[in-house]
Design brief:
globular, alpha+beta, homodimer, 6 helices, about 25% helix
């Protein structure tokens, strides 16, 4: 019998229907990203990108030259532009239609000089440095007084929307809190009113106690397949410690989080034949006064099935692999 | 300058950023659907599907045999199962996790015996018959007292989630109103409170007056690129007449709607090199007493770009082709 599951945080429903499973895990094989020649993110091709705004590079190397370890620059095709720092930006109201300037920011973080390195093959120390650069750019972009939210995400593979193969993340600074985070904040607020506790902390406790959906654990982080997973093999990484902001990650947490990411991404790659995936960090909005109720986390979405008419038309998901099966499968290796 | 646009109905934001355009309309070329051999939807292979529940077929032909014009059967891999007709269905609450039986219904409507016929190449009379079958199945599935909503959608091409190439639609009967429709109902309610009119009617009036986003018009229907289009070349078809339910389409409206669909789908195919697309009908919920405020419509989503980490993480969309440019482009032919 298919099952309708309600997400404990944002309360949206998912249909888990493993009867559909046999028909279509057809997207596992990764389609190649149609690549630019030469790769604009490779060392030596720095002039192909906008000028760098930040880099980890040894002494003696030069801005926008090779030798860097991690390099950050504005997206060449930005979804939002920085604009000025004043609080106002232009808003147009034309009867029923409201629009405003797309002010914010959009940066690319190139994670390694190596063109073809899966995050699962990076040293934990390298991933830890990437995470640290995330926090620095998030803090920096939030300095613009118009910015209400900074979203860090990663597209890996063609079907996940990547347009460059070279390992990179993106940081988008938005002049509003995006709907997914709004819903999580609202869910956390309601839950706290009803139960007096953090819904994310309670989910974590429940998952550890139950165990069926756990994929990875260390001292500081837990990786698991969420109860109401939207797509097959969806994963979440939660910090055990209740911290609203990713940006407040402490010195001693970068490497353990890097180990969690390396482990779960490696399992996804090995079990599912190197699928495309998206990952995203959900942190607290820039300044709402509501910080204490949020609990930052990472969401990982392998893209082995296609979003179809039902999803577009309904705003919800049919998942053809139960999270219990997915977690069991991901645990089989190593 | 990129622009943030607010949808007038459900109030969600879209980022329209044509700076990004140059980089990726790479998905235009249609990837083939990995096909089953023989096609289970072709005449002569009726035994490959569950037994038909409805068909348009001439006298002298037999149930589950060839000769049909349009054929309907339960989905072999249903997302939801019919179950009994009682009002209760099993609900499980396990601390923070709520789940319930996936009760509803899931049918496939094979639209033609021809395996390889784009809807744009069907006769308007055939499309009109398909639309009439939609209404009949919607009414039929709504008879189950658990069903709160019936969603009709169509997946065309691999990247739109189709698993069979043969032209078909799907009907999913849900025990709740899906979030996308909830948001539209809520938006329409708020708008009516504020303005005293139907937001869909006002959008239509505004679009006709403005003209920049119009793609098709006849006596009864208007096809246009919505102001806050989520994906490049998104289209909507609205009836000029304020009718809450698609199921109440009158006899004289089937052919004009078929002409609208044939026209806009033909333009999408010809202008964008036969892309994958999804389409969906939004109609009023089965019985909420709120019928009068809704205004049924069809949404068409060409799938020429991939949903990426930003969309998954934020719950909103970056659209790299403005709806004005899209409509102008679609109007260039014929």
């Amino acid at each position: 019998m298919p099952e309708i599951r309600v997400d404990p945080v944002h309360r949206t429903r998912v249909i888990v229907s493993s009867a559909r499973r046999s028909r279509s895990l057809a997207l596992r094989a990764r389609l190649p990203v149609p690549e630019a020649e030469p790769c604009p993110f490779c060392p030596g091709n720095e002039s192909e990108t906008p000028r760098e705004v930040f880099a980890l590079r040894p002494r003696g190397t030069h801005r926008d030259g090779p030798g860097w370890e991690i390099r950050v620059f504005p997206n060449k095709y930005p979804a939002l532009l920085p604009g000025g720092h004043g609080r106002e930006f232009e808003k147009r109201e034309d009867h029923i239609y409201v629009s405003m300037d797309g002010v914010g920011g959009h940066e690319v973080i190139v994670e390694t000089p190596k063109h073809d390195l899966h995050m699962a093959d990076m040293e934990p120390e390298r991933i830890a440095k990437v995470l640290q650069v995330y926090t620095e750019r998030m803090v920096k972009l939030a300095e613009n007084s118009r910015v209400r939210y900074v979203l860090v995400f990663r597209n890996y593979g063609f079907l996940a929307g990547a347009t460059v193969e070279h390992p990179h993340s993106q940081v988008l600074a938005l002049p509003f809190v995006p709907p997914s985070v709004e819903r999580e904040l609202e869910g956390a607020r309601t839950y706290r009113e009803e139960h007096g506790t953090c819904v994310f902390c309670d989910v974590l406790e429940k998952e550890i106690e139950d165990g069926r959906r756990i994929v990875f654990e260390n001292d500081k982080f837990v990786g698991f397949a969420p109860f109401a997973s939207r797509v097959p093999y969806e994963l979440a990484i939660y910090p055990r410690r209740h911290v609203p902001r990713f940006e407040n990650l402490s010195e001693g947490e970068f490497v353990p989080l890097a180990e969690a990411l390396k482990d779960v991404l490696g399992r996804v790659r090995d079990v599912l034949d190197d699928p495309a995936f998206n990952s995203v960090i959900h942190t607290s909005p820039v300044s709402t006064g509501a910080e204490s109720r949020f609990h930052w986390h990472i969401e990982i979405l392998p893209r082995i099935t296609n979003v179809a008419g039902f999803e577009w038309g309904s705003g919800m998901y049919i998942n053809i692999v139960s999270p219990e099966d997915a977690a069991r499968h991901l645990r089989t290796i190593r």
